[in-house]
Design a protein that fits this description.
The protein has about 250 residues and is α+β, with helices and mostly antiparallel strands. The protein has 9 helices and 7 strands, in the order αααββααβαβαβαββα. Strands 4-3-7-6-5 form a 5-stranded mixed β-sheet, with helices on both faces. α4 (about 60-105) runs antiparallel to α5 and α4 (about 60-105) runs parallel beside α9. The chain starts with a helix and ends in a 7-residue tail after the last helix.
Length: about 250
């Protein structure tokens, strides 16, 4: 250290003894407000050391580079998740669009139900699906329901009692099911643990479309229901004209 540096250090020490002690928080606030502090003080920057988890020491610059690298990895992961979500949404949109067009071309209620079942099982690859229409449907559906585990007719009040709070205000419900609820929707020995329950409503309660999964975490309460809601609105309007009750 030169004589001039020694004199400057002594003067600083003397001045610091005559002033109030500077706290670490004050230093931190000052550096936050003066982020360019080290631009002309590279000699100070090079001497700074930060404890490393491995027990060694790294320079401040190395620590900053490490932080930026970690943030970059996090951003890349988030970007990858966004791309994956966008890809899934594109696929769901295409499948939903094809389903809606197919249902609109159905010439009868039985054909509509068959096409709905085929699309859910073959295109959407659901583990189990169930269509329950409330009393007031045509005789041809009654005949079809005798030969199908997918669609059936039930009394609306019975469905509301069996599913308790799952049918409220025509809102879609996603999440795990109790055994009693799963059995009512999908029949006994169904292995369904979670489901999306979609009320069909257009000028009155028409029924329920339920889509189930063997995975208890597949359908969750916070998941989006945009595509499911669209299908339910279209399906409700297509089914309504086949009802006996006006």
């Amino acid at each position: 250290m030169t004589d001039e540096a020694i004199i400057q250090r002594a003067e600083l020490t003397e001045n610091s003894n005559n002033t109030a002690e500077i706290t670490e928080d004050q230093v931190a606030l000052y550096l936050q407000d003066n982020s360019d502090f080290f631009l002309n003080r590279e000699n100070i920057l090079l001497t700074l050391k930060l404890p490393h988890q491995s027990g060694g020491a790294v320079s401040l610059v190395e620590r900053q580079v490490s932080i930026l690298r970690d943030r970059n990895i996090d951003l890349r992961n988030r970007y990858g998740q966004l791309i994956e979500t966008a890809t899934d949404n594109d696929r769901l949109f295409e499948l939903t669009n094809n389903l809606v067009l197919t249902l609109m071309e159905a010439g009868s209620l039985v054909t509509l139900i068959k096409q709905l079942q085929h699309s859910l099982e073959q295109d959407f690859k659901v583990d189990r699906a169930s269509l329950i229409l409330f009393d007031g449907t045509t005789q041809d559906l009654d005949d079809h329901s005798n030969n199908s585990s997918f669609a059936r007719v039930e009394i609306g009040e019975d469905a509301r009692l069996a599913l308790a709070g799952l049918l409220q205000d025509q809102q879609n419900v996603c999440g795990p099911l109790r055994e009693k609820e799963a059995n009512y929707l999908f029949g006994a020995n169904n292995n369904i643990s979670s489901a999306a329950i979609i009320p069909l409503y257009f000028k009155g309660d028409l029924g329920i479309l339920a889509v189930g999964s063997n995975d208890i975490n597949h359908f969750q309460s916070d998941m989006g229901t945009l595509f499911i809601s669209h299908v339910s609105k279209v399906l409700s309007r297509l089914i309504r004209p086949y009802l006996i009750t006006p």
